[in-house]
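Supplementary Methods S3. Input chains for the assembly prediction are listed below.
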Amino acid sequence: MSISRRKFLGWVGAAGLSTTIGKPAAAATGKHFTGYPNSFAILHDTTLCVGCRTCEAACNKVNDLPPPDKPFTDLSVLEDRRRTTTKAFTVVNKYDNKEKSKSPVFFKKQCNHCLEPACASVCFVSAFTKTKTGAVIYDSSVCVGCRYCMIACPFEIPTYEYDQVLTPRIRKCTMCYPRVIKGQLPGCVEACPMEALSFGKREDMIKIAQERFRKYPDRYVDHVYGEHEMGGTSWLYISGTPFKELGMREDLGVTPAPQLTAGALSSVPIIAGLWPVLLAGLYAVSKRKEKIAQTEKERPAESETEEES
Amino acid sequence: MAQVTTAEHKSIFSLFNLIALIVLGMGVYITYLRFTGGLAAVTNLSDDNPWGIWISFDLLCGVALAAGGYVTSAAVYLFGMKNYHSAVRPAVLTGFLGYALVVLALQYDVGRPWRLPYPLVVQQGTTSVLFEVGLCVATYLTVLFVEFSPAALEWLGLKKARNLVVKLTILLTIFGVVLSTMHQSSLGSLFLIVPSKLHPLWYSPYIPIYFFVTSIIAGLSMVIFESTLSHRFFSYKMDETHHKEANGVTLGFGKAASYVLAGYFAIKVMGISSGNQWHFLKTGYGTWYLVELLGFVALPSLLYAIGVRVKSLGLIKFTSVLAILGVILNRFNVCLVAFNWQLPAGERYFPHWMEIGISVFIVMIGLLLYRFIVTRMPILYEHPDYKDAH
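Predicted structure tokens for the full assembly:
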């Protein structure tokens, strides 16, 4: 009887658990993905940016965001280091230029729309989607509000409506997905008076960047930020100042975020399959030991009264 | 007779009852603020620091400290260490209450708690470690509930149902160990995605294994610590077997914890070596890391070993507190102290008093439920009708 029960246990454990846990691991196995073909990207050339905040104003308008504390014409806010908030999906920061101290560098910050986004990979309700246009969009109708996407984002972009009681949402740049699918330009790109922002196919944006490197080698650091960082992003940056000095991490590596957890997730079905067998085996060993100990204890008695056994 | 016993012990609890009342009152008040004003009204959480102590303490520590259930039941039912049998029910009860309170705490932390079943029923984010954690915690809470239920069924006198559940013991224990292995380690895997945010001394590809091994340390130490408290306050509820086995449990679990701590120390050093992070030890974070590793891993391992060697129950009990604090310290370090280490000091997180208030409130609910159950159900003693059942 004990054997059939053990078999049964192993079967139930292995079959039951691997069917429930098997799927996530399969979906997480890292495949080489270099972005949707013909997806869009935005190239930010910081050497052309003058810090006028027109893009911030346009972003505020197209996203129907509440008015800012200080008007967009007030450039004093550039003195502080700012991050994205629920009221501002993009912010322009001012950085000192070590080479030419009189001409500071302006750097626009917003969601980088990773090719393989960390936020989408960690979301346990799949609220984030990497669309074929390149935009990473968010669906608040399923969001539980665990804020793991904010933990996971290497660029510290998603923000949360902590003050909302019943309907708190994650807020971030949508790369103007609703406009782009209608054939319009993203708000910030359309508004930029300096052509510091270019919108087009990602391959073309990289080509434009390289073209500028070739034409004006003295003006740029020879690196397109976002071409490979975290597996690549749909926002690309070129600059005359090292990106580290513009508040961008240079130690992120080129591994797409989902690959960081793929290994751990793929070990899950192994545990579900192997552990029940191992544990049932240990149980069998301890049972057997007990049985042997019992028989050995009974042996002297056995020789006296044989019927007892 | 029951009334006499209660009366006898009333005086011990009166101060405790007063404190409990204050804590519960405070908890209800903060709960009201949380669900009328949102997270901003009661927490210091921000866009840079989205997880606070409700995650680091209530979730990460809560789950680790509730590991006594699977550790003890595996030792007794699967590995045949029957002389620890009297420790199973208190450990399973603590595990069950622990997980139930983790789920309660999450109602405060997540933005829309009524959507917590969404990952299961609406849309599955199968690439998320959190999805796996959620699935395992939900399943394991159910398993713990069933594992605990014989005590309640004996109390209620439902013999048939009780006998049916007892027949499932081995199956439930195996399920419990499998699920615990998965989600205890996965709580560590949550941080695999943030190599750029978690300090390199704490970030390691081995972090799931660290979390799993420390859960065993926490489980073993919690059984010792709890038994110390139970002997102090509920000694009158214990039967002869429980009293007789208690010292053996303390010695045996202390010995096991000493070994596991030693193994954990070894894999931590291997982690530092494989990542070649030695140079970080010279920094301030390095000092803090050494405090954790030497003071709360190496030291308890040594003290447990000495305690077992010289059979000093006092030393083992003291060490259990040290080891538990070590696990708590580790979870706080991973989730808060070493997380966002590159942010300027002004943007770092420190909990609002009301966040601490809710954590205390939830621990208090746990203590009260534990007391309610052990003073009524056969947890610390065997029910006279089912003596031969084991």
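The radius of gyration of chain A is 29 Å. The longest helix of chain A spans residues 268-304.
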